[in-house]
Amino acid sequence: MRSGVLAGWTPGKFSAAEMSFSTYRRGSGPAVLVVHEIPGITPAVAQFANDVVERGFTVVMPSLVGTPGKAPSQIYMAQSMMKICIAKEFTTMAMNKTSPVIAWLRALARNIHNEVGGPGVGAVGMCFSGGFALGMMVDDIMIAPVIAQPSMPFAVGKKERGANLNLSPDDEAAIIQRAQDGCQVLGLRFAGDKLVGDRFAMLRKKLGDAFIAIELQNTAKSDHSTLTEQRDEASVQRVLDFFAEKLL
Fold first, then answer.
1. Which end of the chain is more exposed for a tag (fewer CB within 10 A), N or C?
2. DSSP-H helix ranges across 87-221
3. Distance of alpha carbon 113 from the chain centroid
4. Considering the entire predicted model, what is its pTM?
5. CB atoms within 10 A of CB 60
């Protein structure tokens, strides 16, 4: 039995698409993947994931980088950022390309869905993983995608990077079709968050009414993490309601 931040969570490991990552699982009911932000599964990420569990879901948290349960610090953030920037699984500098790790996440979602059943799967990505739930929409089982402050590819240099959705042309076309067929996407951001760039405008253009945007007023310039470090309680409840509407 684990103690501390991850008390009650069962550790595991999942391999697919020539990748292996550790996972943490808790709860019962339909599956929801909670994909952490930089620097990793922090206490605030675990708190949000526990809220999802308590609402009636089987939650799986992949650990893609960092030390699970460790609190954020400037040094820790920088270390995790460096790993993300150089790891081929994330292709952080590439435009118009789906991150390879999304193939692993799709396989993980299929695996847990086959076990627990239900109408489909939900997922939430945050910051560098913000668009990952969008990429997972290629599969019909992804029926509750949530994108929180999507920030990849990192908006450095060319302005168009800030509007790029981190998807290959084929995946983007499939996701647009799914949106037209009725799959809604919930997005959250602080209105003044420059890391998100123009992605919400692009999502409105590509997905139309299927994109549900929650844009919060900043209380500080550094506000970024809508569900965790700068947690907005109303937004957390809206995400939980979205999962319930689609999956329960």
1. N
2. 101-116, 132-135, 169-180, 199-207
3. 17
4. 0.96
5. 28
Coil/strand/helix, residue 80: helix
Pick from 76, 68, 70, 62: nearest CA to 14: 62
Q: How many CB atoms lie within 10 A of CB 96?
A: 14
Kindly report the backbone phi and psi dihedral angles of residue 172, in degrees, each rounded to the nearest multiple of 5, phi listed first.
Answer: -60, -45
Q: Say how many Å lie between the first and final Cα of the chain, rounded.
A: 29
* Per-residue pLDDT, 158: 60
Quote the CA–CA distance of 61 and 65 in Å, as a whole number. Answer: 12
DSSP 71: P
156 has pLDDT over 70: no
Q: Angle at Cα 189 formed by Cα 186 and Cα 192, nearest 5°?
A: 155
Paired strand residues for 10? 25
List pLDDT tens digits, range 45-71.
Answer: 999 999 999 999 999 999 999 999 999
